[in-house]
Amino acid sequence: MIPGVRLILLGRQGAGKGTQCVRLSRHYVVPHISTGDILRAAVKEGTDLGLKAKEIMDEGGLVPDDIMIGIVAERIAKPDARSRGFILDGFPRTVPQAEALDEITAEQPIDVVVDLEVPRELVLQRLAARRVCQDCGTNYTATGREKMPWFCDVCGGDVVQRTDDTEEAINRRLDLYESQTRPLIEYYDKGGLLEVVDGTGSPDEVTPRVVAAIDGRPRVPVP
Ligand code: ADP
């Protein structure tokens, strides 16, 4: 395994991006940059950004492109991302975000874009059972047999359902995925960067598929 990669992970809500990103980030020794996590941290801290984003996120809408582009440009300019690379999770989500990312990464271009494919019916089931640690963001799947209150195995924080994992907000996010984010698959396919990976099955089954897709492609060595 060669450390370092500049990777984008695309896929529907509930496709398993967050879970795979934690593993890939350890495997390739690069930071996992999740725009959803960055926004949730801002909401928790009550910053200006958080106040603006909370309502949009709870309704399942998209935060304006210019705000998101600014956040990501700032994050990938940091030394860890510049020297080792990064995994982008949740960005880009629209064609204007992808075009802006091309400009931001002109000197150190993206190596590969993985599209984690999971059918809509299956992600709906996964999202209904999704629970998350309020403090560290670790994801869990509810079986209905958990002891309540439910504490995180990793940090001891409260495990809850995300406020935007209501049926209405989930359906809105999935519709927005089809209309705004799916065009990126064609965008990156045309650019010769796309790898489509089957995201069905357990996380342990999916990880080696993603790693094989990444390792099968040429990567610009990290300096
Ligand atoms: P999900 O993939 O389940 O929608 P995320 O954690 O990736 O969850 O994002 C949560 C919310 O944060 C999104 O519904 C959206 O409101 C906002 N968000 C995250 N990334 C972006 C982005 N790149 N552009 C616009 N909004 C975003």
What can you see in these coordinates?
- The protein has about 220 residues and is an alpha/beta fold.
- About 50% of the residues lie in helices and about 15% in strands.
- It contains ten helices and eight strands.
- The strands form two sheets. It has a five-stranded parallel beta sheet, sandwiched between helices.
- Helix 1 crosses helix 10 (about 205-215).
- The longest helix has 15 residues, at about 165-180.
- The protein is globular, with a radius of gyration of 17 Å.
- The two termini are about 15 Å apart.
- The relative contact order is 0.20.
- The chain binds adenosine-5'-diphosphate (ADP).
- Adenosine-5'-diphosphate binds near residues 36, 68, 90, 93 and 97.
Q: Cα distance, first to last residue?
A: 16 Å
Largest sheet: 5 strands, parallel
Mean pLDDT: 95
The helix content, as a percent range, equals 40-55%
Instruction: Give the helices and strands as they follow along the chain.
Output: EHEHHHHEHEHEEEHHEH
How would the global form be characterised?
A: globular
Number of strands: 8
Question: Strands across the major sheet, in which order?
Answer: 2-3-1-4-8
Number of helices: 10
- Main structural class: alpha/beta
Q: Name the poorly predicted regions.
A: none
Q: What small molecules are bound in this structure? A: adenosine-5'-diphosphate
User: Which percent band covers the strand fraction?
Assistant: 15-25%
Radius of gyration: 17 Å
Annotate the secondary structure layout.
Blueprint: E1 5-11, H1 17-28, E2 32-34, H2 35-45, H3 48-58, H4 65-76, H5 79-84, E3 85-89, H6 95-104, E4 112-117, H7 120-128, E5 130-133, E6 139-141, E7 159-160, H8 167-181, H9 183-190, E8 194-198, H10 203-215
Helix pairs in contact: 1-10, 2-3, 4-6
The structure holds adenosine-5'-diphosphate.
Adenosine-5'-diphosphate binds at residues 13, 35-36, 39, 56-57, 60-63, 68, 90-91, 93, 97, 164, 173.
